[in-house]
Amino acid sequence: MTRAYIAVGSNLDPGRHIVSGLRRLHRQAPIVATSRFYRTPPIGPDGTVRRGDPDFINGVVQVETALPPLPLRRWLHQIEAGAGRIRSEDRFAPRTLDLDLLVHGAKILDGDLPHRRYLAVCLLELSPAFELMPGTPLRDPGGLPMEPTPGFSLEVFRPPPEATI
Fold first, then answer.
1. Is 98 one of the catalytic residues?
2. Residue 47: inside a domain
3. Catalytic-role residue among 24, 95, 116, 117
4. Is residue 162 part of a domain?
5. Which of 16, 23, 55, 85 is catalytic?
6. What's the domain range around 137?
7. Does a structural domain hold residue 130?
8. Averaged in consecutive runs of 10 residues, what is the pLDDT profile of the chain (165 residues)?
9. Catalytic residue among 98, 116, 140, 158
10. What is the number of structural domains in the chain?
């Protein structure tokens, strides 16, 4: 089994889409830890706030998986599609669910990790000594305001043992 970290976000009905998406994910790759989730403003390609779009709820989950990175990414895209995610030319558009594979084993797979505050802060909650490369610790890059959002935890998306989803 390999440890992986997945960024989770939504700005279209996040309470529903994050919980249902993580329940699906948990069936394939057991979620062993979650960061806090934060409300963050939507950002565009230039790093500035997109006016008129709803705020995001963002967090990171740690999973244990036997899947290599590419099949895991495909599974994440299936979960997004099941939540009604429509990919368009505007990759910063509002979305029902966004699941991004940040780290798989020792390999960083998302180049935004050191630059996007909500990714770095959430990953550091789960792995405080995380290093981008040996001797280079991940740090909070600052900038983007983040407001903790209660209500998302392992207990929220893990169904009771007898329940089926």
1. yes
2. yes
3. 95
4. no
5. 85
6. 2-157
7. yes
8. 96 92 90 93 84 92 96 96 88 91 95 92 96 92 86 59 48
9. 98
10. 1
Rounded CA-CA distance 123/140 in Å is: 10
Burial of 142 (0-12, 13-18, 19+ CB in 10 A): exposed
Active site residue 23: no
Residue 163 lies in a domain: no
Catalytic residue among 24, 100, 116, 117: 100
Cβ–Cβ under 8 Å, residues 29 and 67: yes
DSSP 43: B
> In this predicted structure, what is the pLDDT of residue 165?
45
Q: Which residue has the tokens 């590419």?
A: 70
Q: How far apart are CA 32 and CA 25, in angstroms?
A: 12
What pTM was estimated for this model as a whole? 0.89
Vertex 97 angle, CA 148 and 61, to 5°: 55
100 classed as catalytic: yes
8-state DSSP, 149? E
Has 73 been annotated as catalytic? no
pLDDT value of residue 65:
95
Can you give the CATH number for the domain in which 48 is found?
A: 3.30.70.560
